[in-house]
Specification:
- By secondary structure, the chain is an alpha/beta fold.
- It has 21 helices and seven strands.
- The longest helix has 30 residues.
- It is globular, with a radius of gyration of 25 Å.
- The N terminus is likely disordered.
Length: 518
């Protein structure tokens, strides 16, 4: 779609006095096979088949198990209204196919999504620029620590990014140039991307908005409303079908997703005050921490450097709007989402390839506009800044992935005792029992032990005689909650697991709720 302005770079053979960016492009083109092999080797080395545990991935796995076992889109037997269903449905299919080694299969699925996102990134840049630039950008994205780590997380981030890149690549192939005739597979990539993004994450609303606005702009500048109408109708039909088939929806009550309700409330309830408080704080977090870690792999030496370079990266991404409105609009809408609605570093990933493109374009522009020696020097420094820190973090991540035992090292060993006690819990409990556990562990333990777990701030809905508790003296907030809820352990521990380094053990005990406050 876009203005049709060619961004093809002129590639000159390396020679005395040539621009450094040209040297990098030519070198990347000549070494493309070893570079792609290096990507494949690095991603294989990063794979370990272990579950990188977290509450969100635990929820996705539990929803998938509920779907796979015929219990519908439920968690703890209650219809779930928040998480978009596309990813849990895909995981449910994996559970039906791979009844054993499920985590390994899910990890492979996420890794395949990551490799597909890289292939689509290459396709997108090849269409918009040229082969050497496509190689440089693809390698840059592949060895960005943020992208690399989410290639092994059972989360929606990588599947959603795959869908985003499919929509961008399909759009570029079909509407990017008025002289290029699209192939059938271009439409297939576009439709597949639409289905993925619409069913996977609520920020698909932003992507669809960016696409429609960009299509309208293209129709105005090219005076071809028919070409813009086809994808706009395709977009609206896909969204309408999703809303009709959404398992979170109660028939006759319209869309009921809690994400949408939250966003509507944030944007309509006391917006000026929201801008003065949360939005300012979110913007500060974005510039001081989030962008630098996502793009450069870690914090820079000082917060001021994070702010400066983080701001430069964001502006470089927004600047894509001049030649590719769809790309720049997607960056802008993602930033508005992070500032106005949710400050979550994970959402950087959905626009990360575009930030890498913007960063490269900025470096190339600096190299071309400054005197050659100065431009080459600044280009080299900034290129090293964007690559060396990331590669160092990628290497450290690979080493961490192969720590043995893995859970003794993962998250400083916090999950290891819970993994061990989860294997024992089914021996002492039934499906009617409710087990209380510390914050951010209920979803993980529910999946590991296939039992119902509740954590602080969740209701305790246990029938009489069916309440259990995991005691963990390392969590004073959890102990305070148990006391506030009048929960009293009874009898001897049914199972206990020691922590290393003489830290307090955890134990499973029967419990009851005292009728009177303690």
């Amino acid at each position: 779609m876009d203005s049709g302005t060619s961004n093809t770079l002129i590639i000159a053979p390396p020679q005395s006095g040539t621009y450094l960016y040209q040297v990098i492009l030519n070198l990347a083109d000549r070494l493309r096979k070893p570079l792609f092999l290096a990507i494949a080797v690095a991603y294989l080395l990063g794979f370990n088949g272990q579950w990188r545990m977290g509450p969100d991935s635990g929820l996705y796995l539990n929803l998938a198990r509920s779907l796979a076992t015929g219990n519908g889109y439920t968690y703890h037997g209650i219809r779930h209204e928040t998480v978009y269903p596309g990813f849990p449905i895909a995981l449910a299919a994996m559970q039906r196919i791979f009844t054993t080694h499920l985590i390994v299969a899910d990890d492979i699925f996420i890794l395949v999504c990551a490799l597909a996102a890289l292939a689509l990134t290459y396709r997108l840049i090849l269409l918009a620029y040229d082969r050497p630039t496509a190689i440089v950008i693809t390698v840059g994205v592949a060895f960005t620590h943020e992208f690399f780590r989410y290639s092994y997380e059972i989360l929606t981030d990588m599947p959603f990014l795959t869908g985003v890149m499919a929509v961008l690549a399909g759009h570029e192939a079909i509407f990017g140039s008025p002289t290029r005739r699209p192939k059938w597979w271009d439409w297939a990539i576009l439709v597949a991307g639409l289905i993925i993004v619409v069913s996977t994450r609520p920020t698909m609303i932003g992507l669809m908005a960016a696409w429609i606005i960009a299509l309208i702009f293209s129709a105005i500048t090219r005076k071809n409303w028919r070409a813009a109408a086809v994808p706009a109708i395709l977009c609206l039909v896909t969204v309408a079908l999703f809303l009709c088939l959404d398992p979170r929806r109660i028939p006759g009550h319209g869309p009921t997703g809690q994400y949408e309700q939250y966003a509507f409330h944030q944007l309509t309830h006391d917006l000026p005050n929201e801008l003065r408080t949360n939005a300012v704080g979110n913007l500060r977090d974005l510039l001081e921490v989030t962008v630098a870690r996502a793009v450069f792999g870690m914090d820079l030496l000082y917060i001021s450097l994070n702010v400066i370079f983080g701001g430069i990266v964001l502006l470089a991404g927004i600047a894509l709007i001049r030649s590719r409105p769809f790309w720049g609009l997607w960056v802008v809408i993602t930033l508005l989402t992070l500032i106005l609605l949710i400050s979550n570093y994970r959402y950087i990933l959905q626009m990360l390839p575009l930030l890498v493109i913007g960063w490269w374009n900025l470096l190339r522009s600096i190299n071309l506009r400054l005197p050659r020696r100065i431009g080459n020097s600044i280009f080299a420094v900034l290129l090293v800044l964007g690559t060396v820190l990331n590669i160092g973090q990628v290497v450290a991540f690979i080493v961490h992935q192969h720590a043995h035992p893995f859970f003794a090292d993962y998250e400083s060993g916090e999950f290891q005792p819970y993994v061990e006690i989860a294997n024992q819990i089914p021996n002492f409990t039934t499906s009617q029992d409710v087990i209380l556990c510390p914050t951010k562990l209920a979803r993980i333990m529910t999946f590991l032990a296939d039992r119902t777990f509740s954590e602080p701030n969740e209701p305790i809905a246990a029938p009489p005689g069916h309440l259990f508790v995991i005691l963990d003296s390392k969590s004073p907030e959890y102990a305070h909650w148990l006391a506030a809820m009048n929960v009293s352990p009874e009898g001897d521990p049914l199972a206990s697991v020691n922590r290393p380094h003489n830290l307090p053990a955890i134990s499973l005990m029967r419990a009851h709720i005292d009728p009177e406050p303690k």
